[in-house]
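Appendix C reproduces, verbatim, an entry submitted by the partner laboratory led by Prof. M.T., so that reviewers can inspect both the input and the predicted structure.
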Amino acid sequence: MGIPSRRTRLAACAVVAGAVLTALVPPAGATAAPAVPRTAVTAEGGPVPGGEGMPDDGFEDESESEQDDLAPAGPSAQGDGGVRGAPVPGRAGDFRLAAGSSLTRLVDQLGAALPEQGLTELMEQANRRSEWEGDCGATGIHGPDLATNHRICWQNDDATSSEWVPQAITGVSDAQEDEDWGTSTAEPIAVAAYDARNPGRSDYAAGADNCVQDSASDACNEKGVRVSFFNQATRMYRHALLVWPYVNSRKNISFDAVHAREGTCTTSVTTACKAQNGIHAGGMVWYGNHLYVADTSNGMRVFDMRRILDLNPDNNADVNDPTPDGLVSDVVDKKRVGRQSNVWYGYGYRYVMPQVATLKFTAARNTGTTSGNQCYATGRPKASYISLDRTGTDHLILGEYCNTANGGTSPGRVGTYPMTALTAAVQGAAGTAAGADLAFGLPTGATFKGEDLWHKIQGVVRYEGVWYFHRSNAYDNGRLLQATPQKVGGTTQLVGNPKILESSFGPEDLYLAHGRGDGLAPQLWSLSEHAPSTGCPGCKREMYSYKMSEVIGDFRP
């Protein structure tokens, strides 16, 4: 039997409200089940049908205000006095990570159920066009101290989206030393954006009601994180949704967005039933075949570039595609995700990338609150941003975003991990540890517009032993900072360069394209997060780069 068109399915008779379709999975070799009329799929308490709820993945929830300069003060705020003393000591042991339970078996099951491919195939299907250089228009978001080398601007709906906010950036220079991917000019860049509209699911108290109802916007769903893969040769890009694999209560393999628990509220929202927020994805590193994504409260989630699931192989969204497991996939419905009533969904995205490993901090969380972006001198750090240093032995750099105006005892810490240790943990058994080999507290004492200079850090790179930090400044130009390790009173500390450089509006993560593979000059890439708004009419989202040689020169007295 052929797969009916969406028009035919939508004309199908409606099922009585409240009923749950429970079609059986066809035996191996049987004809794929026809697509299900959208009105036939109902759910109790959210887009996952009752009885198929996602189990808690054991991750701690994150504050919605994570890495937000305008976040309200938390209950333990100390006013705007901030941290003014000496830098906190860096304790490498606080940064220790350990592998969680293996997800390989679950991802293997997804690979058997759905078409699986790698990044090359995804990039060949890039469907969104960026603006390049002068086509981006006026350069109003950029400060006077740093000359942009390249500018890339998003397609209009991504540039203005109130739902998806770009945060993290990485690229082929992180992935491999020779940068050899596709054509010599492809130089892929990957950007992560988080779902900033976090109403949760089945939030009756906020009037969101049930997210699969026709009256509810698809923004009702917490979609977590998506990654946009950009090809510099074609100037095209494509989104992929990050997902977490699990086996539902009906013993079927499925996946959901990367957050810890589905909302199951039916009358009012309580702590016991509300959905958790998606992760912020403030930093990301592509290394080899793996994509490391920062999970602020927990550590890092790891994805495999070779294991991307394709929900629309024929590239024709008008017809549901049969899948290897005998079901079908739907890329039009933006309100459902995973396997529901024997149809596969991905919130409307063609490509989804399942998590393959977890790296979680082993140190205990400090007892103080972090709801206002407070940080503490000891205990578990926050994975606010990450980057890769290839200028020596490959290391991953991890650091904290903190707001000292809201309390806490530290403006932030940074730690470094040998990539050999992280790779071994990703590939090893549960509990395999990856220790940091270095840790520093951020410099202290300097001020900027009456507040601490060395806090509100959104990104970091270490290049030839020197550290560079991106500091945000709400809806205004941020700053690029420089620091070097120096002996102070017998202890090696990061000491800040008194010279600071004005950066873009809404500066975020940093990525160093070293250029060694293609003979290009090193470039420092970053991106801006703010879309134009009434609060910031001059804001604009861009990816942009600076020549690293000019950055170094600009920091000289």
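The longest strand covers residues 236-247. Additional entries are available on request from the coordinating office.
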